[in-house]
Amino acid sequence: MKEKIIAKASELFLKLGFKSVTMDDIAGEMCISKKTIYKYFCNKEVLIEESTSLVHGQVHEIMDTIIAKNFNAIHENFEIREMFRDMFKNNIDTSPIYQLKKHYPEIYQNILSFEIDQCTQLFRENIEKGIREGLYRSDLNVEVYVKFYYTLVFHINENTVSESEAQRIELEALEYHTRAMATVKGVEELEKQLKRINN
């Protein structure tokens, strides 16, 4: 039952927002009493922590699946971006990350420190892969570019209220990041990916 509550809460939080979903809403959606929820979670904050942890795990599982498909480095980044777009396409237009930062800053900080470690690793592996494939320049300072990119991405998500706006700017950031690193071959691949997603 605990897992079911976490799964339903995660779905509602992403769809309607962390602030607006109440314990009553979750109980109503699941046709259970609020008392049942409180049996497992002493308050909403604990449920939010568990839910964000579940979503976090799901995101990284999907990322691993995409990486296992062995696309080239640029195609891989676009696939990951599309996965995020699909994941959040049914939610209200307020960015879940922005809401979390605003209303539950402690939970947000805990996620952020873990997320930065995971993303840093992911970005580093992607850049190294792109260099091996001849899509990114071999003279790049990998650590600096990793920092540039996650600073860009986290800044967009923290400070953009609208989810659709955040996704639009993220696409611009991905293009900007890729062009800054790309070889001639890399630019050709980037143009191909941009054309694919705009069709």
What does this entry look like structurally?
Residues 22-41 bind DNA. It comes from Flavobacterium tagetis. This protein is mostly helical and 199 residues long. The chain has ten helices and no strands. The protein has helices spanning 2-16, 23-30, 34-40, 44-68, 73-87, 96-103, 105-132, 142-159, 163-181, 184-198. Helix 5 (73-87) packs antiparallel against helix 7, helix 7 (105-132) packs antiparallel against helix 8 (142-159) and helix 8 runs antiparallel to helix 9 (163-181). The longest helix is centred in the middle third of the chain and has 28 residues, at 105-132. The model has no long low-confidence stretch (mean pLDDT 89).
Topology:
Elements: H1 2-16, H2 23-30, H3 34-40, H4 44-68, H5 73-87, H6 96-103, H7 105-132, H8 142-159, H9 163-181, H10 184-198
Helix pairs in contact: 1-4, 4-5, 5-7, 5-9, 6-7, 7-8, 8-9, 9-10
Organism: Flavobacterium tagetis
Domain HTH tetR-type: 1-59
Protein name: TetR/AcrR family transcriptional regulator
